[in-house]
Amino acid sequence: MKKILVTGGAGFIGSAVARYIISETTDSVVVVDKLTYAGNLASLAPVSQSDRFAFEQVDICDRQGLDGIFARHQPDMVMHLAAESHVDRSIDGPAAFIETNILGTYTLLEAVRGWWNTLADDKKSAFRFHHISTDEVYGDLHGSDDFFTETTPYAPSSPYSASKAGSDHLVRAWLRTYGLPTLVTNCSNNYGPYHFPEKLIPLTILNALAGKALPVYGNGQQVRDWLYVEDHARALYRVVTTGVVGETYNIGGHNERQNIDVVRTVCALLEELVPQKPEGVARYQDLITYVTDRPGHDVRYAIDAAKIERELGWTPEETFETGMRKTVQWYLANQAWWQQVLDGSYQGERLGLKG
Ligand SMILES: NC(=O)c1ccc[n+]([C@@H]2O[C@H](COP(=O)([O-])OP(=O)(O)OC[C@H]3O[C@@H](n4cnc5c(N)ncnc54)[C@H](O)[C@@H]3O)[C@@H](O)[C@H]2O)c1
Questions:
Q1: Site residues for ligand 1, CB cut-off 6 Å
Q2: N or C: which end of the chain has fewer CB within 10 A?
């Protein structure tokens, strides 16, 4: 039984990782999260009562705070997901992305290295630092036959992807220079339950239910490769427990879709599941509104996930169709979760919980 420290575990993917580890394994989880606007303790409610679960509210830029956590919890592994993650926010205000994604990763690596150096040899060699990154570090693809592989050169386009690329380089340098046993994964776009409603799919679902415009950037023809978040969580656990130190694994769902088709899929599912539409709305897809494109918007992402499939035996369980249906159904069944995000009370509740 291992103890896994998960940074960013109150976020979208980190909370899926924490829920997966507690419900599907016998390991323990320590979530370390600053609780920015993207952190939500309600996403951890299904596992927060487990005696294998602990939560620490700490900024990964806070070295002293991190040192205290390593001394108290003595983790066997670290899965690093804490990050500023929204491209639009990185365009409006890049500073937080440089601080958390680059300085925070550096501070965490140093705290981990300090802790790792104190371990006995057997624990030291079994220790893992798993850095969770994005396919956006590779820039974008223009031909329809191209895919990102683990050796695709980095060419990030946005402050978000540039800051993630910087953090990936730091992690590899800490392996090469200090021997820290690290692994890196680069994943395509995730979707699924507990996704903050600033991102395309939850935004589209909630706006459609409210009869509001469904904004689509530019011509809507940008292609993303979509992966259901629970498939990603399973892949990450597979990598941290069985991956080879020093390796990079690309993770993707082979689900390339144009943004406009993703929005139309949500509309079609809502036509079926919620036929009674808001007043004045004849068809959900009539709400689609094209808006000025995002600066530097990448054209196409597509992941070649052959390595993780071949070497670690991971494949996604959900197709785009099954995953999207589950996602829309989840938002319909969990109004309390997103209502608290929309009205801001999830942050008030958090303050209440922390006393
Ligand atoms: N969402 C995707 O489609 C996707 C795809 C590939 C990779 N990733 C990567 O996966 C990771 C998780 O993404 P997500 O979508 O769950 O993000 P998210 O924004 O939903 O969650 C990020 C979490 O990190 C926490 N956090 C932010 N700054 C922090 C700090 N300084 N100290 C401690 N905690 C802090 C937030 O409170 C939040 O809980 C990120 O590293 C992201 O780059 C995301």
A1: 7-8, 10-14, 33-36, 38-39, 59-61, 81-85, 100, 104, 132-134, 164, 187, 189-190, 196
A2: C
* Per-domain boundaries in the chain: 3-195+229-254+300-320
Residue 191 CA: nearest ligand 1 atom is: 3
Take atom 21 of ligand 1 and give the residue whose Cα is closest: 11
Mutation pick for ligand 1 pocket among 13, 255, 338 (CB with most ligand atoms within 8 Å): 13
pLDDT tens string, the chain, 355 residues long: the values are: 999 999 999 999 999 999 999 999 999 999 999 999 999 999 999 999 999 999 999 999 999 999 999 999 999 999 999 999 999 899 999 999 999 999 999 999 999 999 999 999 999 999 999 999 999 999 988 877 789 999 999 999 999 999 999 999 999 999 999 999 999 999 999 999 999 998 999 999 999 999 999 999 999 999 999 999 999 999 999 999 999 999 999 999 889 999 999 999 999 999 999 999 999 999 999 999 999 988 888 889 899 999 999 999 999 999 999 999 999 999 999 999 999 999 998 986 554 443 2
**In degrees, to the nearest 5, what angle opens at C-alpha 339 toward C-alphas 231 and 203?**
55
Task: Mark whether 154 is an active-site residue.
Answer: no
Q: Exposed, middle or buried by CB within 10 Å (0-12, 13-18, 19+), for 55?
A: buried
Nearest to 167 by CA among 134, 197, 208, 145: 134
Residue 54, strand partner residues: 30
